[in-house]
Design a protein that fits this description.
six-stranded mixed beta sheet, 289 residues, alpha/beta, 26% strand
Length: 289
Amino acid sequence: MPNSNWQSLKLGLVQMVSVKPLEQNLAAAERQICACAEQGAELVVLPEMFAIFGGGDQLAAGQAEANSGGPLRSFLAEMAARYSVYLVGGSIPCTAANEYANAPALSAEQARVYAACFVYDSTGQEIARYDKVHLFDANVNDAQGQYRESDTFAPGLKPQCFDSPWGKIGLAICYDLRFPEYFRCLAEQGCELVLVPAAFTYATGRAHWDLLLKARAVENQCFVAGAAQGGEHSKRRSTWGHSCAINPWGEPLASLDRGEGALLIELQRQQLVEVRAALPALANRRLGI
């Protein structure tokens, strides 16, 4: 059952520079999950596309993950149980229906997958799934130039949170950060922490990553934490990194630069209680205006 009166949470954020070889990515993920656990993390977050970064046969990979015995879902369950942590599995491709959101399955003829974030408890039990709602279709001034996630991915249907020993925790992925109404939906469901696996491009991340994380935290008077890809993936793909956690006043609690790494942050719920008591913006909303 969720605990609405949690006091503190030791949160581990994993930052990666994922590449094409799957085995290298899984080894890096376990290395950093282990590093978080050794520092006392209770909840660990992987970045977006931690295992399969760009390219490759996303449809075939998504079909392989259509049940809980899929190779990546099995890996995530094993990591959560081995290191006794709640684990938020970044995002992986999946064609199966999302039972938590009443989403349809995707057929092979549709040739797209969901960007799915699976969550596991400390025994390795799968307890939640979120499918990325907002897909990154944009022109960016970098070597890649154009990004068209909707060519490969189908959009999820709704925001998703999960129950935990630290209350309700919201899930968002990367481009979702640019949509304040999405985060407000999570706040209205009672989320006091929102986790954001991401792979912001270097150009967009440098301009907006910190700004957006702070804005979503301040608007909803909650903790927001982003676990990011951060480095040079190929000649055409470069990501910003700077994984960090923001408190409900909009202050960074800790952050990384770029490159593979692990960050441990202890969140204190009293900060949230004090901010909401002193400046009750959520209670003061006038929705009829």
